[in-house]
Amino acid sequence: MKKKITLIGAGQIGGTLAHLAALKKIGDVVLFDVAKGLATGKALDIAQSAPIENFDIKISGTDNYNDTKNSDVIIITAGVPRKPGMTRDDLLGINLKIIKEVAEGIKKTSPEAFVICITNPLDVIVMALQKYTGFSKNKVVGMAGILDSSRFKYFLSLELKVNPYKIKSFVLGGHGDTMVSMVNHTIVDGKNLSDLIKSGNISQSKVEEIVERTKNGGAEIVKHLQKGSAFYAPASSGIEMAESYLKDQKKELPCAAYLQGEYGVKDLYVGVPVIIGKKGVEKVVQINLDENEKKLFQNSIKAVKELFDAAKKIDPSL
């Protein structure tokens, strides 16, 4: 029996998620949006490519949560995207209300689902979603680190003229201006990035520029697009998480996960490497951080806590 994937929000990310899920044949897709007709139209459009792309999965669109019943995976993109000049934090008030409505819808219809949240500001929204639904903490996770890591690796690949998939690295912490690119844990075609800096293949200042560009990766795209924000790379990141869960791939992926003492952090969703398999987040992978990395990571955690405190002022039920 095919798995069922529900995508909440049929905007640019939602539509791209549906298209990727179809192309990768990972399960039947239900595209949901409160805007009547939007999800149905996009689903029909993608479904009509089935004879060309050779997939036989079912794709449907709806504005009724009952049609999402018994989903195996739910990916949430519902919310207002960032506009030029708007920080992720500005989105908080608007998207908290939206995520509360989504939580009400999915907890009645798919209480056993693995839920991936993409809505910004990510770390706080995923934490609010878990509290609103009451779902198991290992089954509610945020997509951020995969995207941030992919941006970091891509920017490095341009500079070093190496295929992007030959670079191994990851980004820790909150999905915002305090994210931490793990420079000392980056391997480029089998060589440590720190060794490439020492040998003059890339300068320390250029690496720092790339770290900054990664932090502003989303804002850079918003600036170019003017109307809208990134959707292709975020959708690819969400699908990688869904696939690891549905196929029990046990991939190590940087995600916003609930920490219960790991990295010295308790009761908070923060971006760290985790193993995703059929049970959801099966393990938090602990990386040895040097003193500078610890300091940057703590700074990121502080920013996430402050934003969650702001969320609690908006909605005291959190």
Polypeptide structure, described:
The structure is a single chain. The chain is an alpha/beta fold and 318 residues long. It has eleven helices and 14 strands.
Name the descriptors:
three-stranded antiparallel beta sheet; single chain; 44% helix; 318 residues; alpha/beta; six-stranded parallel beta sheet
* Strand ordering within the main sheet: 3-2-1-4-5-6
Question: Sheet bearing the most strands, described?
Answer: 6 strands, parallel
Give the helices and strands as they follow along the chain: EHEHHEEHEHEHEEEEEHHHHEEEH
Write down how many β-strands occur, each being a DSSP E stretch of 2 or more residues. Answer: 14
- C-alpha termini separation: 38 Å
The proportion of strand residues reads 15-25%
On the 0-100 scale, what is the average pLDDT?
Answer: 95
Radius of gyration using CA atoms only: 19 Å
Number of helices: 11
Task: Describe the structure concisely for a colleague.
The protein is an alpha/beta fold and 318 residues long. It has helices spanning 12-24, 38-47, 50-53, 92-109, 122-133, 145-160, 193-198, 204-215, 217-225, 232-246, 291-314, and strands at residues 4-8, 28-32, 59-62, 73-76, 114-117, 140-142, 167-168, 171-172, 180-181, 187-188, 191-192, 251-260, 266-277, 280-284.
Outline the secondary-structure elements.
Blueprint (H helix, E strand, L loop, with lengths): L3 E5 L3 H13 L3 E5 L5 H10 L2 H4 L5 E4 L10 E4 L15 H18 L4 E4 L4 H12 L6 E3 L2 H16 L6 E2 L2 E2 L7 E2 L5 E2 L2 E2 H6 L5 H12 L1 H9 L6 H15 L4 E10 L5 E12 L2 E5 L6 H24 L4
Parallel strand pairs: 1-2, 1-4, 2-3, 4-5, 5-6
Antiparallel strand pairs: 7-10, 8-9, 10-11, 12-13, 13-14
Helix pairs in contact: 1-2, 1-10, 4-5, 5-11, 6-8
